[in-house]
Every structure is written in structure tokens, then in C-alpha cells.
């Protein structure tokens, strides 16, 4: 499929709604060491054969080309990125790509205690660690595997190693995690960590999502204000960041809300994605993909990759459309895309 190229390479990756894309989410694997119900099937997951995954060399090449089109921020994700062997070696190469000035990682934290030092030494300075619950029972209801203590060990290891920017991401599920809101906020305030609550999106592998399970940012905010103190809005320094951030009026800590369902932020989206096997996507909810691996493995030159990136961005829809009559759930679940 080919779409008109909306701009020259010099203008970067601008879509037909004028959104400039500078942010790339890179999935490095579809494998994971737990099985969160909002992301993966419980059992019998069929992972991509390893030969289908992009090699580090292919990822770095893709990033070098994307950076020439204005991509300057990367986030490594998955699946669980820390199950990919020697991830720190990839990080080291990515931080050295001309034009890339920010490399971050999203992890479930289970393997972080073992890898924090190497990742930090490789040049990674920003970490998002997913933590939905502080009780092992609820942790296991969500992730269908044990592991809370390992995640906590990972968080403290990262702090100890010297990571300055550690953020906790908590998915909020109505009927399941209401009792986690206050303890998570207390934990974040006590340990000087930023906490962001994320609304549950229809990207679960089992296809069980309903809007009734979405615990909105607004509802969580009310709970927090009733328990602690008022939350004061923090002005956005970057319009494209998905979170709305607040500081606690008592001066202890800050909190953010990512509300893709109740308050979509598509108008300011600057993100594209590369799946672990090299498909470019212009949205989490995209139903079309552009095959960068095919181009690279068939000997295509960098101009071909640039054309592919332009085609992908030019075809981006205005909004994800969750909740609208013609919304189409993508065939892939979150772990197969990279959140
Ligand atoms: N395994 C890593 C982790 O869990 O942090 C990285 C990949 S995970 C897919 C990235 C983020 O997506 C996590 O914070 C996870 O909680 C979030 N996520 C997964 N499924 C989601 C869904 N259906 N709705 C909203 N967020 C989701
Ligand atoms: Fe694994 Fe992350 Fe998906 Fe949970 S959200 S199953 S940790 S990839």
C-alpha cells in the first residue's frame, strides 16, 4: 500500500494533520516472564521465532535512518525488554546514534535488580517500571505469576544504581485495583518516585476489555485528593507527552494520569512504533503495518526505509476512535506491539 508523501525528508515525519513525529517506541521482544491479563493470554502463548526478530544491527540501522528524519527520542519496550539477552549492548549503541538525545526503557522490573548497573553504565537514564499493586495477591491476579518482591528489589536497585528519573506506571482496573491507589501513592511519595496511573485500553490478548473496567484518571484523582490533599496541575513542558501531571499541594511528590480512553490525546501524538519483528506502526491501534524488516533483509537501501517511514506516517488516522461505532480493535495484543 502506498500513500502520498506529505512532506520532504527535510521536514521530518509530519502527517496529514500536521503532527510531527519525533518519538519512536522500539519493541525488542514479544516474550515476557509474566502474563498480565490486560496484555497477554494466560497460557500457550505463541512467540515469534527468534529469527524473525530484528537483530541489534537491524534495530540500530533503523534508528539511524529514523533519526535522519527527526526522531530524537526512543523508548525500549516489549514484551518484557529485559528478557532480551544483552540489552545493555543495544542501549549503548542507541545512545550513540547521531540525533538521538533520549533513550528510555519500560520494564516490569522483575529482572531489573540484575541489570540496572549495566543499563545505567550503557547510558540509560530514564526508567518506567510497571507496578499495579503492592500486594502479592493482587499482583498475581493481574500478572498470573509471582514476582512482586522482585519488582520492588528492581526499583530499589535502580535507585541505588543512580537512576535519577524512575517512574512507576500503574494500570487502573475498576473492580480490581481501587484499593491499590492510596498505597501506591504513599509508596511513591515515601520513596520519591513519580507515579502515573494509566487507563486500561482494549489491547488485551483475550479480547475481554469493556469500558466498565476502565477506572478513569478523574476517579483516581478524587480518591487521592480525599486521602491526601488537593492536586495542583503542573504546566506541560511538552504538549506531546501523554500524561497530565499534578503536584500534591502539601509539597510531597507528584502524580500523573494517562487517560487514553476518557481523554484521548491523539491531537498531540508524536509517536511511531517498531514491533520486535520490524513492522512500523503509526498508532497502538493501527490496523496496518509497514514492513521494515523485509526492506532491510532484501537489501533495500536507506532511502527505501525512509520512504516506508513517510508512507506509514502519512497514513496515520486522526484519532484511535475507542468508543466510536467504527472502532476496530487491532489484531495484535499489547505484548505483540510494544506499549
Ligand atoms: N513488559 C514491560 C512492562 O510491563 O512494563 C513493557 C511492555 S508493556 C506492554 C508496556 C506498558 O503497557 C506497561 O506499563 C503495561 O502496564 C502497559 N499495558 C499493557 N497492556 C495495557 C492495556 N491493555 N492498557 C493499558 N496499558 C497497558
Ligand atoms: Fe509482560 Fe508488560 Fe505485557 Fe505485563 S504488560 S504481560 S509485563 S509485556
Plain-language structure description:
It is built from ten helices and 14 strands. It has 339 residues and is an alpha/beta fold. It has one domain (16-337): Aldolase class I (TIM Barrel, Alpha-Beta Barrel), CATH 3.20.20. The strands form two sheets. It has a twelve-stranded mixed β-sheet. The chain has a two-stranded antiparallel ribbon with strand order 1-2. The structure holds S-adenosylmethionine and iron/sulfur cluster (SF4). The site of S-adenosylmethionine has 20 residues, from strand 5, strand 7 and helix 10.
Q: Could you list some keywords that capture this structure?
A:
alpha/beta; twelve-stranded mixed beta sheet; binds iron/sulfur cluster; 14 strands; two-stranded antiparallel ribbon; disordered N terminus; binds S-adenosylmethionine; 29% helix; 339 residues; TIM Barrel
Record the SSE blueprint.
Elements: E1 13-14, E2 20-21, E3 23-27, H1 56-68, E4 73-77, H2 87-95, E5 102-107, H3 112-122, E6 126-130, H4 136-143, H5 148-161, E7 165-172, H6 181-190, E8 194-199, H7 217-227, E9 231-233, E10 244-248, E11 254-258, E12 271-274, E13 279-281, E14 290-291, H8 292-297, H9 302-314, H10 334-337
Parallel strand pairs: 3-4, 3-12, 4-5, 5-6, 6-7, 7-8, 8-11
Antiparallel strand pairs: 1-2, 9-10, 10-11, 12-13, 13-14
Helix pairs in contact: 2-3, 3-5
Bound molecules: S-adenosylmethionine and iron/sulfur cluster.
Amino acid at each position: 500500500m502506498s500513500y502520498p508523501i506529505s512532506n520532504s525528508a527535510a521536514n521530518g515525519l509530519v502527517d496529514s494533520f500536521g503532527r510531527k513525529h519525533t518519538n519512536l517506541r522500539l519493541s525488542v521482544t514479544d516474550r515476557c516472564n509474566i502474563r498480565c491479563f490486560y496484555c497477554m493470554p494466560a497460557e500457550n502463548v505463541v512467540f515469534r521465532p527468534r529469527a524473525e526478530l530484528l537483530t541489534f544491527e537491524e534495530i540500530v540501522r533503523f534508528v539511524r535512518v529514523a533519526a535522519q528524519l527527526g526522531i530524537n527520542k526512543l523508548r525500549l519496550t516489549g514484551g518484557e525488554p529485559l528478557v532480551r539477552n544483552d540489552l545493555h549492548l543495544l542501549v549503548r549503541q542507541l545512545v550513540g546514534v547521531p540525533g538521538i538525545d533520549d533513550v528510555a526503557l519500560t520494564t516490569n522490573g522483575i529482572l531489573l535488580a540484575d541489570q540496572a548497573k549495566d543499563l545505567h553504565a550503557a547510558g540509560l537514564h530514564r526508567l518506567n517500571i510497571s507496578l499495579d499493586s503492592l500486594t502479592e495477591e493482587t499482583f498475581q491476579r493481574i500478572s498470573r505469576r509471582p514476582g512482586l518482591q522482585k519488582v520492588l528489589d528492581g526499583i530499589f536497585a535502580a535507585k541505588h544504581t543512580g537512576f535519577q528519573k524512575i517512574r512507576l506506571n500503574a494500570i487502573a482496573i475498576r473492580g480490581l485495583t481501587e484499593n491499590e491507589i492510596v498505597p501506591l501513592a504513599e509508596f511513591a511519595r515515601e520513596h520519591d518516585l513519580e507515579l502515573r496511573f494509566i487507563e486500561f485500553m482494549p489491547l488485551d490478548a483475550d479480547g475481554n476489555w469493556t469500558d466498565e473496567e476502565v477506572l478513569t484518571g478523574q476517579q483516581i484523582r478524587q480518591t487521592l485528593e480525599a486521602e491526601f490533599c488537593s492536586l495542583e496541575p503542573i504546566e506541560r513542558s511538552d504538549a506531546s507527552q501523554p500524561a497530565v501531571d499534578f503536584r500534591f499541594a502539601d509539597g510531597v511528590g507528584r502524580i500523573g494520569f494517562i487517560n487514553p480512553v476518557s481523554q484521548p490525546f491523539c491531537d498531540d501524538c508524536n509517536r511511531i512504533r517498531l514491533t520486535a519483528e520490524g513492522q512500523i506502526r503509526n498508532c497502538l491501534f493501527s490496523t496496518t503495518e509497514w514492513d521494515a524488516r523485509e526492506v532491510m533483509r532484501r537489501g533495500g537501501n536507506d532511502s527505501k526505509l525512509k520512504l516506508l517511514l513517510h508512507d506509514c506516517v502519512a497514513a496515520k488516522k486522526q484519532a484511535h476512535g475507542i468508543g466510536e461505532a467504527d472502532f476496530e480493535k487491532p489484531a495484535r495484543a499489547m505484548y505483540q506491539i510494544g506499549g
